[in-house]
Structure formats: C-alpha cells, structure tokens
Amino acid sequence: MKFRHLCLAVSLAAAALGAQAEGLRVMTHNAFELSKPLLADFEKQTGVKVELIKAGDAGEMLNKLILTRANPIADVVFGLDNSLAGKAEAAGILEPFAPKSDGRKARYALPGGLISIDYGYVTLVYDKAWFAQHKLALPKSLNDLTLPAYRDLLVVENPATSSPGQGFLFATIRAMGEERAFSFWGKLRGNGVKVVKDWGIAYNTDFSHNGGSRPIVLSYATDPAAEVAYSKVKVNESPVATLPLSGAVYQQVEGAALIKGGHERAAAEKFIAFLRSEPVQKDLQTTMWMYPVMQGTPLAPVFAYAKEPAAHQTPGAAEIRAKGQGWIKRWTQVVLK
Amino acid sequence: MRSTRWLALLPLALLTALVAVPLSRLSTDGASALSLAFLSDPYYRWRLAWSLAQALATCGLALLFGLPIAWTLARFDFPGRRWLLRLLMLPFVMPTLVAAMGVLALFGPQGLTGIHGQDTPWLLLYGNLFYNLPLLVRSAQEGFARIPANRLMAARSLGATPWRVFWRVELPGAMPWICSALCLIFLYCFSAFGLALILGGQRYATVEVEIYTLVAYELNLSDASALALSVLAVASLVAFGYAWLERGLARPMRGQVAQRCVPSGWRQCALLALAVGLLVLLALAPLAAIAWRALWAGPAWRALADPEVWAALANTARFTALALGGACLFGLAHAFAARRSVLLGTLAFLPYAVSPVCVAFGLLLVYPRLSASLTLLIGAYTLLAYPFVARGMSATLDAVPAHLPQAARTLGASTWRVVWRVLLPIAAPALRRGMAFAAATALGEFAVTLFLSRPEWMTLTTLIYQRLGRPGALNQDSALVLSCLLMLLAMVAFVLIEWQREGDDDVAGR
Amino acid sequence: MLQVDKVSKRYDHQWLARDLSLTVGAGEIMALLGPSGCGKSTLLKLIAGLEPVEAGTIRFAGQDLARVPPEARHFALMFQDFALFPHLNVLDNVCFGLVERRTPKATARGQARAVLATVGLAGYDDRAVGALSGGEAQRVALARALVTAPRLLLLDEPFSSLDAHLRLSLQTEFRQRIRALGISALLVTHDRQEAFTMADRVALLYQGGIQQCDTPSALLAAPADPWVASFIGFDNVCDDWALPETALWLDAAGRSAHIETLTPLAEGIRLRLSQDGQCYTLHLSAREAAAWRTQLAPGADVGLVIDEAARIRFA
C-alpha cells in the first residue's frame, strides 16, 4: 500500500516544477570556472543576477550560438578563442563594442568583436618518470616522433572534436607548411599515434602518468603547474613537463563578447569589464589554468612551474577561418580514414 | 481494457515534443534536401558497418556469458543474491570515463592484473560487456524465474535431460525477457559513444561520434540529419522487430513458479561459483578497482567537505526523484496504453534510437526560451528513464490473466480502481524493477549534459567530469571518490525502490 | 428480474449469441447448459457488462443495462479459475467488493469473517490464496461473491476444476446457500448433472441460440428436438423420436434383439442391441445384469420390449 502512495506522491512532485527568474544570461564553455565569492561580489555591486549557462566545448558552444542566432539563448558569451573568432565573425552573431579603458593594456587582442580575457598554449606534455625509467632521450623535433624509437608513445585529440587537437594541427601546418605537415601526420599515423575524442580521455586514460600507455600527450602548457597544485603531497617538482617543439605550440587567446540580439546590454558590458578586472585576472590563473591577458597582473606563485613557451606557431584568425575546416577534413582523411 | 488506449497521448506528447519535433526541425532547418550521398563515402560506410558489427558482437557475447549466469541466478539461492542483483546495476550509473579508468586500473599498461589490454579488441569487447551484460543477466534471470515449475517437471518426465529442458522449455519461456534485453543492448551499443571509443581511440568510433562531429563542430546539419535518420531507421527496425516478437511471445503465465534451491553437490556449487565469478569479473571488477583506488586517495576524501559536493549530491537526488516521478507517470501511461500494440511497443524504444546530439541541438532551435530551463532538463531525464518503466510494466500486464481485472469489475471496482487495487499491486515487482533501472539511468545519465546546463544544476556526474577536465592527481582521485559516492547513492536508491519482503517476488506468476 | 432480449454477439465471424432471449426470475437459479466452446461464458460476460453486446438489450428489474458499467450492476461473477487476487490474502480477497462499495474497513472485515465462517473457512483469514486447495479456493471465491449481497450471481463453470466427489457435495451445499439468501443466479455449465442438480430451470444453448428452456423434469419429459434429447442424456434418439430410459427393457417374452456390443461399467453394463435394423442402447444396473448374466454375450439374442406409449415424438 505504502509503495503505491509513494508512487503517487512522486508523480505529483514531478508535475510541479519550479519557475525561474531572468537575469544576465552568460554562456560559457564547460571549463569556465571562477571562485564563487567573486561572482557573488559582482552581483552585489551591479545588482545584476548572473545566470551561467554551460554549452559544452568551445566549438560546440559557438555552433549552438550560430544555430540559435534568430532567437539568442544568451546575452554574453565567454570562451571563444582565436581559432573560432573568424567563424563567429562570419556568422555575424557577435555585437562589437569597445570596452572602456582603465589604463591597463591587454597583451593580446582578438578580432570580430571579441574582447580578450586570457590566453594559454596547447603543447605536448610528457611524463618525466616514464622517460627516466625507460632511459629514452626526449624528442628534439616533431619529426623525431615519427622515428621507431618513439613508436606508440603519443596520444593526441581529434581536431574534429577537440580544441587542443585543432590547435596542434594548425600549429604543425603553420610551422611546416600544409604539404609537409600532412606528410608528417601520415608518418605519425604509421608510427602509431593514438587519436582520441577529447582531452579528458587523452589525459586521464591514455597518458602514462595516469595509468595509460602513452608518455606524451597533447595538452596545455600550464599542466606542470596544475600537477603541482593538485598534487596529493607537497612536491617541489612537477611530474610532467612541456615539450615545446617547433610546430607543437599553439597559442589560444580566449575572449568574451556581446551576443547580437541579446538583452541586458549594460549589464553585459559590465560583466566583460569584470572579467578583465584584476581580481578575476588573478583568479582565473588557478581556476581555469590560463594566463591573464591584462598586463601587470601578478602571476600566481605556482605558475613558476609553467613557464610560457618561448615561441608559438599560431596561424592568424583569418587564415584559420578560410582554411581551418578544409585542414580538418584533410587531417581526417590522412590520419583516420 | 481497450479503453485505456487513449493514455498513449501522454507519452506520445512527450515523444513528439522532445524527440520528433526537434529532430524534424533540425533536419528541415539544416538540409536543403536530405541526401544519402554520404553512403557513397567508404569512411561513413565503414563507421555504419562498425557500429552495427560491434553492437551485434556485444549482443552475441552478452548472450554467451549472460545466459548461464542468469540461469544460475534464477535457479539457485545463496546468501547475498539480492545484493548481487542490485550491485549489477551499478555499471549503469558509472560515467564512461570513470568506467574506463576502472577497466584500465585492472587491465591497463599499469594495471593490477598485469595484463596489458589497452588498444586490443579484447578490452573493447570487455568494456562493452561491462555495461551491457548486467542488462541481459537481470532480464533473463527474471524470465527464467517465471517459468512454472510444473512445466519443467513435465519436460523432465517426458524424457528430457536438464540440458534439453534448458533448450526446449526454459530458453523459449524466457525468450521475451532475453529479446527485450538484447534489443536494448543493441540500441545502446549502436547509437552510443560507448566505452569502446574511450578504450580503443577514434579508430573504434561509432557512427554517433560522426554525427556529434558533424553537428557540434562542423554544423553540417544536412549530413548529420541524414546520418541520424539512417541510424534511426536501423534502430527502429530492430525495435519494431522486438515489439512484434514480444507480442507473439507474451502470454499469461500460470502455475507455481519454480523455487530456487540451495546448491548441493560439488557440481552445482562449482556452477554457481563459476557464474558468480564470471559476473564479478565482467561487471563488477572495474567498479571494485575504482573503489580500491578511491580508498587510497587519502587527501581527496577531503573533497567531500566541499559544499559543492553536497550541492551536487542534493541535485543528483532531486533530479533522480523528479525523473523517477516523470518516468512513473509516463511509463505507466505508456504501459497501460501499449498492451499488445506493436507500434506503441516500438515507440517505447524511440528515446534510445535517436541521436542525442541531434535532439539536443534540435531542442535549442525549437525551444530557445526553455533551453536552459529545469523543465527541459527534467523532461530529458524523464525521456531517457521512462521506457524502462513502460517496458517492464507492459510485459507484466500482458501476463496478468484477463479474469482478474474482470472479477474486480464485477465486484464493484471501476476501471481506475482496478488499476489501483489489482493491476498495480500485481505488477509492483515489475514496476519496482523498472523504477530501479530508471533511477540508474537518471543517476548516471551524461547525455543530458549535451543540453545547456547551469552551474547550480551540478550533479555528481557532471562534477566528476569537471574534476576529470583538469590535470592533477588530486582531481583524478576526487573524481574516483565522487564515483564511490555516486555508487553509494545509487545503492541507497535501489534499496529504497526495491524494498520488499523476501518472497514477494513474482506474484503475478502464481 | 434479468431479461435478456434478442442479444447478438459475434467473435471472429462466429455467432456466440444470435437473437438470444432469456429471463431469470427473482430468486431463481437458472442453468445455461451447452457444449464446450458454444459461447456460454461470453454470454455471462455480456450480462456482467464485461463485453459489449452487438444488438439487443439486457435489463434487470426493468432497467436497461446498456450504459451501466460492470461495477454498477451489482452482479457478482464467479470465474472458472476463481480469479482470486494473488497479491491479497484470503480475508482481503473476500473484503475486496465491500471496500469497493465503501464499507468501513472494520465492518467489511467482520462481514467477510462471517461469510468465511459460513462456507467453513473460519480462521483462513491470513492464508495466501496460492496455498489453497481447489475446494478451498472455490469457497473463497463464493464467499467473495456472496459477501457483497449481489442482485444476481453469475457462475461460470464453478465446479469444473474440482474432483467428482467434492463436486457433488459442493453442488448441494451451493444450491442450499444461494436458495437461503434468495439471490437470483445464472449458472453456466457443460455438465447436465450439475445443471439438473443445481437449477430450477435449465436453458440449452446451441449455436448461439436457446434451444429449449424449462425445468429439469419438463425437459426430461419432453425434449424439443433430437439435439436437446441427446445432450440431456437420452441414449436412444432418432431424427423424429426419442426413447426415455424407462421405455425399454429386457424381457424373455419380448421380440428378439441381437446383442452387438457389451460394455462393463462401474455400476452395471451397457448393451448395444439391434432389432428390425434399428439400434438401441440399454443400460442395465448391476442387479439386472446379474439376473441376465447367463444370456448376455456379444452375438447372442435376447428379448427386448419397447413401450411405444412412452416414445416421445418431436414436433
């Protein structure tokens, strides 16, 4: 008897769903994270309620925005980067505006109405312990990775489903030129490169540091710092290190923008200014593991373990917009088909 | 009870609003004309063929391993049997990435067993079995348990050996349950991202991954819709085939069900040990590995003090409860409406047959205002959970002799009172089982994260993925700790839902 | 009380009832007798309202029942398999109808216990129905039907699953109990013995229609046609006449008949005789058989007397 009453009660509860208030709708990728007090302060100071909406990976998020441009589902977006800027601009979904300057300067700028917020590098990361244990010298260039000594040691993300994967492909093309880059990829395929869907899979299941079999993973330049910060015991040295070979460093500049047709314009502008404010610029270093774009922002101490690569091989946004899709198709042809 | 057919309007409305409309909107919006041109691309042909092949192979393997295990669980009684059956549903709850970590902790390059299986086909199939074997085992053991004892005895007295009885009486008798599980396994494997993809890399991507790429990264809606529709066609064919088969197979069961016996003699004990061992190895070992690793995670347990974790726990519990309520409502309506209707039986599988990516993007187009609302989120959870209630219930309702509701009518019960006082109590065990699976689906469902989500809706599953989205040992460990918490929560849910007195099982069979 | 008027019902193109009319009076027990599969159970379901009629009307106490749902008819239907609810114990099964009629729980339990006691099942309250014997299950089903004081009791082959000995004693008990309560009852059976023991009147159902409806004695005295005559147990039936059992006997003075076959039975023997090219069946009691023993053998001739005055001629 009781069981049936329970069923009835549960069904009724399901029918009664709460309504919700409207505020500033901020769309972000899944990796967006800020310390909670910061957001609460912003809400208190501006009187604007912030509704964060996570829309998946950055590329997926952009496509969701393009698809719903007739009836936008957010007012402001954070997380579009230089590789997506061209596509966003072409789709005409962003509302350009000039943020008020407070005297500080941004290190990098983005085209198409995007206001730069932070930046980082996609690069190869290796497992120090594995290389020490196997007494294998580190590869000196990308081409070394096609040699038998480095067979089955690399795992990368699919450029068709992951932003770091895409960045690496673009960097190889920038460094070697299109034809040589694809011939390199062909050789890499022959040498047992493993391609997985996204970063989470590559880093958590295939990277030898986390129980996988591949000691070199395509990841981010800040990983060594994060590994120290999230270490189980206090360490003075990171268990992983970057491998900033030429053609394997891609700079990612992330930005925020107003969405065309969105509401709450004033609040949206305030939110973008907030993202560039010093507290957020400091905070994002250890929450999103990116470098602050505003000059003069002090770096977190743990970033001593994450030196910026000396050089990077990043194609311009215009070139990516023109050729990016074609490169990915060709990559799929060369590496997967 | 022909008059209950109108109840189908309820689930049909849900399916239309959350599946049919978004899907057709996406395909009309993106495609000037749907073309099957992609079929000429050998790459897509290979993806389709591989999806089909791995789904069929998983069905075959699940049958091979699952039948003996299910039979043993149905015929023998042993301490902890019910707990084993509950534990069996935990793989359902596990996020695929965590499951992959569990599998690799055992059979990875640095695995506990010392067997290095990563990137071999064996580990892929193991991964598929891990998720799908429990479905077959639970379903088939129920089927075996319902076969009337006198039918078995009649077969024995007619000269059949136990082995022949299995082939000629028990297997055909349990067929509706087995087919139902196989159909579900096929649909899961065919249209899911799957563990195989994680363990084997992009070479083993299913066609659903291609659809995901086309929609989420290339915004190539025309090819994506065409691909999604061809997947839907194959899946619907399978679902239809099953529903048609089921109608022919389902008939009221009469007579006392066979009693489970305590195994006696070394043969029976060995058989039982073998079955339980196999089950533990195939379905539970990776979970144990996760728990083991979490146990040694030390500082990561401090993560439990984080209010975020408790909020996620509360959200998970809340969404699961809401989804369960929805699943009951729509599942019961579907079950009462579907009685012996092939079309409605097929439709119950629709949520598993459509591409979640296409539905997620279609929903954005159709309901831009609702796209980040709780209503839609719970709707999505309900959509994925309710078929479990619907299928289990309709199979049981078909097995209730027509005389019982008729007798109740003549004793003064109206149609609704008959449902309340006769049909629901008789089908309660099936309802409970369906609800347990629905809860498992809702607890572990990651596909809904394809929809827009809000940080305040953080569930344990999304929290686990968030932790795994950052480098660092502490993050991995806390993901494992959270996975243990998720398993614990799932067990609590299963115990609550399936709470019943011993021997309350299978009332309808008598 | 119950008036079934020109009711028709088809099932898979076969007529189960075709312009069928029937009345059951107040306090009357009526038996519906017919061969297996002739649609007797369907007729009960039509009356109970569980299946829709195609044509015709069913009335009770003058009220047309066409739009009255089964639960509002206050009829109780007892099924062949008793249809006891497996999820309820004996007492809750008996209480079922009372609860539906909004009887307070305590009252309902009291009434149910009282009825259970009258059918000899006092103390069975908490038993699971799966653990009852056939006879016990049948009494529970009867108690469940009677406790709601139905206006009409519909019984669908209620004794068919019981053994012969139990059946006989329960039939008498049933009749007395229903009689005592003064309830009208309609009993469906394929067993003429059961029909004649239980019912005030017997209606013979064949091919969707009532062939004849009368008291058992009137039926035996004047069957309307050859089918009725043979179905109610006449051994010697031809196209236009039938001979009651009492109308023929062995007598040395009778005309000679040839013994075709001789079958020993539990209570005597059965003879098949031929006389003037006409075959007759004759049952002899054990006593008669003993008296005639020396002359009875297949192929032998005996004297057979036929009482022409008793011969029934069909209209």
TrEMBL record, chain A:
Picking any one GO molecular function of the record gives: thiamine binding
Q: Which Gene3D superfamilies match?
A: Periplasmic binding protein-like II (3.40.190.10)
Transmembrane regions listed in the UniProt entry = none
Which positions make up the signal peptide? 1-21
Keyword set, alphabetical order: Signal
Alphabetical list of CDD domains matching this protein: PBP2_TbpA
Please give an example of a GO cellular component term from this record: outer membrane-bounded periplasmic space
The family database entries (Pfam families) matched by this protein are listed as: SBP_bac_6
Extract the InterPro entries matched here: ThiB-like
Q: Does the keyword Nucleotidyltransferase apply?
A: no
Q: Name one GO biological process term.
A: thiamine transport
The protein's name in its UniProt record? Thiamine transport system substrate-binding protein
Species per Swiss-Prot/TrEMBL record: Paludibacterium purpuratum
What phylogenetic lineage does the species belong to? Bacteria, Pseudomonadati, Pseudomonadota, Betaproteobacteria, Neisseriales
From TrEMBL, chain B:
Keywords for this protein: Cell inner membrane, Cell membrane, Membrane, Transmembrane, Transmembrane helix, Transport
Query: Which CDD domains would you find in this protein's record?
Result: TM_PBP2
Q: Which InterPro entries match?
A: MetI-like, MetI-like_sf
Q: What is the lineage of its organism?
A: Bacteria, Pseudomonadati, Pseudomonadota, Betaproteobacteria, Neisseriales
Localization in the cell: Cell inner membrane; Cell membrane
List, alphabetically, the SUPFAM superfamilies matched: MetI-like
Keyword check for Metal-binding: no
Q: What name goes with this protein?
A: Thiamine transport system permease protein
| GO aspect biological process, one term | transmembrane transport
ABC transmembrane type-1 domain location is 48-240, 313-497
A cellular-component GO term for this protein = plasma membrane
Q: How does it sit in the membrane?
A: Multi-pass membrane protein
Q: Which PROSITE patterns match?
A: ABC_TM1 (PS50928)
Where are the bilayer-spanning segments? Answer: 49-71, 83-108, 120-137, 174-199, 224-245, 269-292, 312-335, 342-364, 370-389, 434-453, 478-497
Family recorded in the similarity comment: Belongs to the binding-protein-dependent transport system permease family.
Q: Where the protein is mainly located, per its record?
A: membrane
Asked whether the keyword Transport is assigned, the reply is: yes
Q: What species does this protein belong to?
A: Paludibacterium purpuratum
Q: Which domain of life is it from?
A: Bacteria
TrEMBL record, chain C:
One molecular function GO term is: ATP binding
**Any one GO cellular component localisation term in the record:** membrane
Q: Which UniProt keywords apply?
A: ATP-binding, Cell membrane, Ion transport, Iron, Iron transport, Membrane, Nucleotide-binding, Transport
Q: Which PROSITE patterns does the record match to this protein?
A: ABC_TRANSPORTER_1 (PS00211), ABC_TRANSPORTER_2 (PS50893)
Pfam hit, one: ABC_tran
Instruction: Domain (ABC transporter): give its ranges.
Output: 2-232
Domain of life (superkingdom): Bacteria
SMART domains (alphabetical): AAA (SM00382)
Q: Biological process (GO) annotations?
A: quaternary ammonium group transport
Q: Which PANTHER family match?
A: SPERMIDINE/PUTRESCINE IMPORT ATP-BINDING PROTEIN POTA (PTHR42781), SPERMIDINE_PUTRESCINE IMPORT ATP-BINDING PROTEIN POTA (PTHR42781:SF4)
Query: Per its record, how is this protein called by name?
Result: ABC transporter family protein
Q: Which organism is it from?
A: Paludibacterium purpuratum
